[in-house]
Amino acid sequence: MTTTYDCTTDDERARGLEHAQRAISEKKCVVLPTDTVYGIGADAFSPQAVTMLLVSKGRSRTMPPPVLIPRINALDGLATEVSAEARKLAEAFWPGGLTLILHAQPSLDWDLGETKGTVALRMPADEVALELLTLTGPLAVSSANRTGQAPAQTAAAAREQLADSVEVYLEGGPRPLEGEAGVPSTIVDATGPILRVVRNGAVSLDRLREHVPGVLGLGEIPMAEEEPAPEQGAIGDEENDAGSLPAASGSSAVTGTEAEPTTPAGNAQP
Question: Which parts of the chain have pLDDT scores under 50?
């Protein structure tokens, strides 16, 4: 039976988190607030649960969800070949609006879809989300809406779209919070030797470079890869297509809309 809990009150929040934990263990989906918009979450280690999440949204395996984690030390359990630079960014901006695309641990028994060996990880800056993640462990989470519809800013709005495909709705009030901009997370591809921004978002390039000076901005390429400058007077240079996201190493490029952005390694994410 689908149930909504008002997580703005302590008692109902505790009951809601308990029910949500049980639902996750039973391979069902839950809706939870994050620091951007509401997300639909499922056990990241259950192919059945991840499939249910994608079906609920009307998505295919070609757009796998990213994974939210409760603490920074979960990074090494889920990803491999994590560079010192990627670790610096995680330590500086988690919890918060930064998603890192990394090589997934090959030994993990999970199936998020067609990730091509990568995983998009983020630690959200939201109390309810972190409490649930602490109880459940890593969750595959995508924006709580049907494909083509606006992302939900309340659990009630999510329920209008997802209905009984979700077992538990955790209502935490409007997201983003009043006075905060609804900016998606910045996505950084950390699968190669040089970190690259593949989607601009909550963390600016200047802030990233305060910790990792060599990180490349959206569309930038290393000097060694640049083509020779055209002769004087040449015209018709192609502009970077800001509407598409460069592919992470080993993954295919994925494009998305402002309302429902996608990660190069995955699906639309909160």
Answer: 228-264, 267
Is beta strand 3-6 parallel, antiparallel or unpaired with respect to 30-32? unpaired
Look at residue 238 in the predicted model and tell me its pLDDT.
21
Give the domain ranges of the chain.
3-223
Q: Determine the CATH number of domain 3-223.
A: 3.90.870.10
Cross-strand pairs, 104: 79
Based on its alpha-carbon atoms, the radius of gyration of the chain, rounded to whole angstroms, reads: 19
CA 175, 179, 184, 186 dihedral sign is negative
Residue 231 CA to residue 138 CA, distance in Å, equals 53
Q: Which residues contact 13 (CB under 8 A, 6 or more apart)?
A: 5, 6, 7, 128, 170
- The CA distances from residue 128 to 66, 91, 125, 209, 239, in Å, are 18, 21, 9, 30, 42
Could you report the per-residue pLDDT of 227-263, keeping only the tens digit for each? 544 333 322 222 222 222 333 444 433 323 233 444 4
Where is 4: in which H helix or E strand?
strand 3-6
